[in-house]
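Appendix B.2, paired examples.
Example (i):
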Amino acid sequence: MDIDGFQAKVEYDPEINMFRGEFINITGLVDFYGETISGLMNEGRASLKVFLDMCKEDGANPRKSFSGKFSLRIPPDLHGMIATKAASSNTSISAWVIDALKEKVHHE
């Protein structure tokens, strides 16, 4: 769910018969609840505003920053298949994986 340019994941909680949203890729925990999608959106906007106001007051960046690096453990046979595909494409494993990840992210 996108609320004012910030992404949130939404789940239904059957124990309380409500939707629960939680903003992702921000520097704090901001969650919100609603019985309907429109109620959830309204609560999300209100919670986000409080969080952003606090960040502004503290001079803090509300969005998480990412280094562009992460470690990944994969099965050796998959590693070999990726290395073969990368070599066949005359590219490095890193470049090949980046292209594959971009394609996956943009097609979901």
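Example (ii):
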Amino acid sequence: MPCVPNDASDRVAVRIVLDTNVVLSALLWRGTPYNLFQSIRQQEQVRLFTSAVLLEELAEVLIRPSPTKRLTIIGRTARDVLEDYFNVAEVVTPLATPSVIAADADDDHVIAAATESKADLIVSGDRHLLALGVYQGIRTLTPTDALARLGA
């Protein structure tokens, strides 16, 4: 069941933070993360958030060999895809980064961005974040489940 009603007067804003693995997939390949990103772009009532730390991580990942090869194949640059993402996502500055995921402290930055933005959803393919389930009322979903929840 979609979380966003069809009647424009009844629309409820959904606040989302995408984990870097989802953003990378959305920007470089065509599949569920791409479809989710397009759905977020098209729905005014859905707001996407990130942080400077997450943007920096994305920039670092984009210059690795596999993403660089993919960028060449699709005829884009890292700067192009970063701009695409930056034009959609709102940047928040978390005041603190909680220690929640002991097995992967980088995941704590996703949680920090979600907490600061008062997100409803974290979307990730990361097993540590998915295992968390819900943190301070913020649900972690796979891209497939998030797309279904948005009714797309």
